[in-house]
């Protein structure tokens, strides 16, 4: 298990997240400005209007498919900067099982985010 204060583990998490973002964005033809990976107490990720992606480093503690959902959710914000029906339709296109991942995260994320 990754420790919140363990800098080498945070760097390892950064590499995992950056590699996953690059791969998923590439597969879906999406471009972004930069990726920031930091410790956040309440957010799993965010996307700015300048196409900067931010992720909580602790999402690497999730099972891989749920971590990838967080990334896909933020990638969807590159196209739709809101949570409209169009946004959720786009998320569905990126990840047809997104409802399963959302439910799992709602039920379990506090076990992983410290």
Automatic annotation (TrEMBL):
Origin superkingdom: Bacteria
Residue ranges occupied by any YgjP-like metallopeptidase domain in the UniProt entry: 9-107
Protein's name in the database: YgjP-like metallopeptidase domain-containing protein
Annotated Pfam families: YgjP-like
Organism: candidate division WWE3 bacterium RIFCSPLOWO2_01_FULL_39_13
């Amino acid at each position: 298990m990754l420790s919140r204060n363990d800098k080498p583990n945070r760097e390892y998490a950064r590499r995992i997240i950056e590699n996953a973002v690059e791969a998923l964005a590439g597969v879906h033809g999406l471009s972004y400005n930069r990726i920031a990976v930091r410790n956040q107490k309440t957010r799993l990720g965010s996307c700015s209007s300048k196409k900067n992606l931010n992720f909580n480093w602790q999402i690497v503690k999730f099972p891989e498919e749920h971590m990838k959902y967080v990334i896909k959710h933020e990638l969807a914000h590159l196209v739709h900067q809101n949570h409209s029906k169009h946004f959720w339709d786009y998320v569905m296109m990126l990840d047809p099982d997104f409802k399963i991942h959302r439910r799992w995260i709602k039920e379990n994320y506090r076990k992983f985010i410290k």
